[in-house]
Design goal:
Layout (H helix, E strand, L loop, with lengths): L15 H5 L8 E8 L2 H17 L3 E8 L2 H14 L5 E5 L3 H6 L7 H6 L10 H4 L3 E2 L2 E2 L2 E2 L6 E5 H7 L17 H10 L13 E4 L4 H10 L19 H15 L7 H6 L2 H6 L3 E6 L4 H4 L7 E4 L9 E2 L3 E5 L6 H11 L2 H8 L9 H4 L15 H5 L4 E2 L7 H16 L5 H12 L6
Parallel strand pairs: 1-2, 1-3, 8-9, 11-13
Antiparallel strand pairs: 3-12, 4-5, 6-12, 7-9, 7-10
Helix pairs in contact: 9-10, 18-19
Length: 431
């Protein structure tokens, strides 16, 4: 059991309520629901709760909102460690396995199988499959997103660079790593002639999570086995080539800020302020970017190498094993992930709905709202891959990311960083 949750609850049997299917919630049932997000997301969750309570007046939902994602994760870990989590929590697919392995979550598969409102087939399989723990759907995915390229259309126009989508520039299927690099170089400028870069072509975090899709595109993988991983696989020729290309964006081509420049002003802020032409992010940035008034922006698919690949971003509604009103909590989770519930949350712009019907509806594909090219998120779903589903994946990803970051900022050679990442993460793989 991971150290962070070693004192949560002893191993729990499958709860009788889940095994036998949902019953009618008791009158006056109270359910606590904890989420994170910016003001627009908070307002959407308030609307979701209000709509649910109108349809289910016997159930009271107590919404707990933590604005910052980092603060939310700390609160989540502390609450589970203390045995006092909210009944329903929003958890990323890369993080729920630690809770599931500790017996801290009630598997939702039995509830889903008996639902007359939603079924597994309603969801994109790329969203729901990663939430299977030991073969059972454990949390219900609320959203999914690929990694995309956000780009400043005005900076592209000013530099005479074609936009990375048809009909203006490269069709998404033909945008290669070489095209991407040339574009970033053309948009990296010293605008005042003082020898320092004032406008960067690209902004990205230096992490394993950001590098992974490029590793897959090159024909490599991040672990040695998808079914029973025993080590990272960053030392294969394919992974090394992808990591070298990724790292050299900063160390050789300087189209990305240095560590000092990044610490002085984050790449995301530079993008918001119109001084970075492209920024890699998931759908989560949209509510913030919709507040931009100084320039036009849109999204495009990632460039590709020998194959196309993206990386999954997805959050799910999870039911705490400690919850007292599980049937009432499931009724809320079911509604939140029904077409009505997901349509409410889609209005924030943050999410790509995990329900096919909502993702393919005007609730998401509204070209009058930025980004105009929201279809790019749907186009990328068939090539999305998930990070490994492991109780210790967060620790693995963090330690490997620290080494990739050192190489990215020229503080270690790539060979040194790969060797250190391989070595530092071995303890988190089962022997």
């Amino acid at each position: 059991m991971p150290l962070a949750l070693s004192r949560v609850l002893p191993a729990l049997p499958l709860l009788l309520a889940a095994a036998c299917g949902p019953a009618t919630p008791a009158p006056g049932a109270a359910v606590s629901f904890m989420v994170f997000g910016d003001p627009a997301e908070h307002a959407a969750y308030q609307s979701l709760v209000a709509a649910f309570e109108t349809e289910h007046p016997a159930i009271d939902i107590a919404l707990i909102h933590i604005p910052g994602q980092s603060d939310y994760r700390q609160r989540l870990a502390a609450d589970f460690a203390a045995g006092t989590p909210a009944d329903v929590v929003l958890v990323n697919y890369r993080r729920y396995a630690e809770l599931a392995a500790a017996g801290a979550l009630t598997p939702l598969g039995p509830y889903l199988d008996r639902s007359t409102v939603i079924s597994p087939a309603d969801f994109f399989p790329e969203a729901i499959e990663p939430f299977r723990w030991e073969g059972v759907v454990t949390c219900i995915p609320q959203n999914l997103s690929s990694l995309v390229v956000y780009y400043n259309q005005d900076l592209f126009d000013a530099a005479g660079v074609p936009e990375p989508k048809a009909p203006y520039g490269y069709p998404a299927a033909d945008w290669t790593w070489a095209d991407f690099l040339r574009t970033a170089q053309a948009l990296t400028l010293d605008t005042d002639g003082d020898g320092r870069t004032d406008q960067f072509g690209l902004g990205t975090e230096a992490s394993l999570f950001r590098a992974a899709p490029f590793i897959w595109q090159a024909g490599g993988d991040v672990v040695d086995s998808r079914d029973k991983p025993t080590r990272l696989a960053l030392d294969t020729p394919e992974a090394e080539r992808a990591l070298q290309w990724f790292v050299e964006l900063q160390t050789v081509h300087h189209v990305v800020p240095s560590r000092v420049e990044e610490e002085a002003e984050s790449s995301e802020n530079r993008f918001l302020n119109g001084r970075t032409a492209m920024f890699l992010n998931s759908r989560r940035g949209v509510p913030t970017y919709r507040e931009i008034e100084g320039f036009r922006w849109d999204v495009a698919a990632l460039p590709h190498d020998s194959q196309r690949a993206g990386i999954l971003h997805a959050d799910g509604f999870c039911l705490a094993a400690a919850a007292q009103q599980k049937d009432a909590a499931w009724t809320f989770i079911e509604y939140a992930n029904s077409p009505a519930g997901q349509t409410i949350l889609a209005a924030t712009g943050r999410t790509v709905p995990s329900l096919r019907s909502v993702a393919q509806s005007p609730a998401f594909l509204d070209s009058s709202q930025r980004p105009a090219n929201s279809a790019a998120f749907l186009d990328g779903i068939p090539t999305i891959r998930a990070a490994p589903i492991m109780a210790t994946w967060v620790q693995i990803e963090n330690r490997a990311g620290e080494e990739i970051e050192r190489a990215f900022y020229g503080e270690a050679t790539l060979a040194e960083a790969i060797a250190a990442a391989q070595s530092r993460t071995l303890q988190y793989f089962e022997p």
